Request: fold
Amino acid sequence: MAIKFRAVQRAQPGVAGGGEKKYYASPVMNGEWDIDRLTKSIEKICTVSGADIRAVLYALVDVSVDGLEDGTIIRLGDLGSIRVTLSSEGRATAEEIDVACIKKTGIIFVPGARIKETLEDVKFVKTN
Reply:
């Protein structure tokens, strides 16, 4: 199966007024899967009930939040891993760094080997 993409015109980042506009390849999304769709798909390939699958997925979120708050990297097998990231202002000495220096936080997802392999072998097809 091929991933569809289309040409999208974008302005030049960081240039007032947009600068020179160019076309870039952009993936075409084909909807989304919510927890119900994931549950039904998982249910078809294993013996676990939909209620149990949902319970595990919701519990995964809860324990992941706890782990991330503790500074733990959450490894999800072939799916990948998630961890907290932050950006801060720089200071001349380590002693000057405090919580006020932190400007932005986020979560980084690093795909697992199996997902990375999928992207190595993927085919692309241009759509209008």
In short: Residues 7 and 90 are 39 Å apart (CA to CA). The radius of gyration is 21 Å.
